[in-house]
Amino acid sequence: MTADPLRFGLIGAGRWGRIFIETLQRFDAAKLVRLASTNPDSRALVGDDCVLSKDWQDVAGASDIDGVIIATPPAVHAEMAHAAIAAGNPVLVEKPLTLDVKEARALLDFAESKGAIVHVDHVHLYHPAYRALKKEGLGLGPLHAIRSGAGNRGPYRPDASVLWDWGPHDVAMCLDLMGGKPTSVSARLCERRKVEGGEGESIALQLTFAGGLKADIELSNILEKKKRFLVAHYDHESLIYDDCAQDILVREPRPDDAKCLPEAATVIDVPGTQALDQVLTDFTEAIMKAETDLTGLRLGLNVVEVLDDCEKALKT
C-alpha cells in the first residue's frame, strides 16, 4: 500500500521558491499544501488546493503540515526557522543558513533542545556527481588539495554579496570533503566594478586545513558565462566535478604523475537524479523516519562561520 504524500508548506515564491514549487509538482512523496508569499503572481504558481497567505507565520506555525521549506532572503531565515521549530515542524532552509554567526549558533542550540529535524539546502552536496566524487575518492588515497570556482554574469543581490550568494556551496563542499573546519582562511578582492543591475565582484578565498591542505575558491558575478566546478587532487589522480560540462564527473591523472592526454581521462557515470529531487527525498525520508540528526545544520553553522571569517578578511 502506497503511503499518502507528505504535506509541505513553503515560505517564499521568489526565484528559488518557484523552483521548489516546480519540483514538488512532479515529486510523488510530498505535495505543496500551503504557501506564504507576497509575490502577486503566487496564485498562478500553485493549484487551487494550496492555501495561500501573505503572512509567513501562517505556514511556519501551521499544524496541518508535515514540514516547512524556507526559500526567502537569508536575513530572515533564522526567525522563520525558529518559529517553525517551535511549532514542531521539520524545516528545510535554503543556503546560507543565516548571515549572522550568533543567529546560526542560537538556531542550532534551539534545534538541539527541541530534537528538531532541520536540513540546509547546500544543493551541490546532494548532486549525484558530487556524491559519486566522494565515493570514488575513497579509493584514491589521501586528499592533497581542492580547487573550486563558481559564478556567472549576475545575479546582483541587494541582500547578499557574491561571497554569501555563491560561496556557501563551495565552502560546504570543501568542509564536507575535509570533515571539518579550516584552521585559517584568507580572502582577497580580485575585481570590483559597476555593472548594469548593480555592483559586480570577483574574489578569491583560500581555506587552510590541518596538515596544510589548502582549498582555493574563486567566486564571481561578472563572468561571461556560468561556471561551477570542484577539483579534488589525490595521490596520483584528480576528480573533477563540473556541473556545466557535458561530462559532469571525470577522473584523470595528475600532471606530475602522467601526461594529461585526453584519452587518459575517465568519465564516471552518475545517476540522472536532479539534485533538488535528492534534497526533497532526504528531507522526506528524515521526516518519515523521525530522524533528528542535525549534521546538516551543524555544517550550515560551520559554513556561516567560515564565510564570516572570509568577509572579515576581505575587509582588512
Structure description:
- The chain has nine helices and 14 strands.
- The model has no long low-confidence stretch (mean pLDDT 93).
- It folds into two domains: 6-123, Rossmann fold (3-Layer(aba) Sandwich), CATH 3.40.50.720; 125-274 and 309-315, 2-Layer Sandwich (Dihydrodipicolinate Reductase, domain 2), CATH 3.30.360.10.
- With 316 residues, the protein is of the alpha/beta class.
- Strand 4 (67-70), helix 4 and strand 5 (91-94) form a beta-alpha-beta unit.
- Helices cover 34% and strands 29% of the residues.
Task: Produce the secondary structure layout.
Layout: E1 6-11, H1 15-25, E2 30-36, H2 42-45, E3 51-53, H3 57-60, E4 67-70, H4 77-86, E5 91-94, H5 101-114, E6 118-121, H6 128-137, E7 145-153, H7 162-178, E8 184-195, E9 198-208, E10 214-220, E11 222-233, E12 237-242, E13 249-253, E14 266-267, H8 275-289, H9 295-315
Parallel strand pairs: 1-2, 1-4, 2-3, 4-5, 5-6, 7-10
Antiparallel strand pairs: 7-11, 8-9, 9-10, 11-12, 12-13, 13-14
Helix pairs in contact: 4-5, 5-9, 7-9
Strand order of the largest sheet: 8-9-10-7-11-12-13-14
Low-pLDDT parts are none
How many whole angstroms does the radius of gyration measure? Answer: 20 Å
What is the average per-residue confidence, as pLDDT, rounded to a whole number? 93
How many angstroms separate the termini?
A: 61 Å
